[in-house]
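Mods, move this if it's the wrong board.
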Amino acid sequence: MSKALEIVTCTETADTFHKLFYEKLDKQRQTIGKLYLDNATLTWNGNAINGKAGISEFLEKLPISHTTVHSVAAQPVMDSSIVIVTTGTVRFASSTEQDFSQTFVLKKTDTKTMKVSFDCFRFLNKIESN
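Not the wrong board. Structure tokens:
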């Protein structure tokens, strides 16, 4: 595959994946574990959760959410993996809206399927400009 085609494929995968992921997070959280490898790691604001079962349990316990994605960037990396970075805002239950950044590493499991091997979520602090 040419480098140009690899980047286009990567970008298309990121677009499809981020829509699916945040739809599941906001509306079908009980099925979100299907997106992760068995040995995946989630780092949530500095706290590590290991394994698909632990990640599913953690995410399912979060309050109801509404997520708006503002940007998505993707890049192919070693071993036919893809790094996807998203930024946006999320509101959990009745809390105030917060900015976030989330980085995923998707790894091929077969010729057509990719799953999350690493997920890092971080709330962002706003910087006031003078």
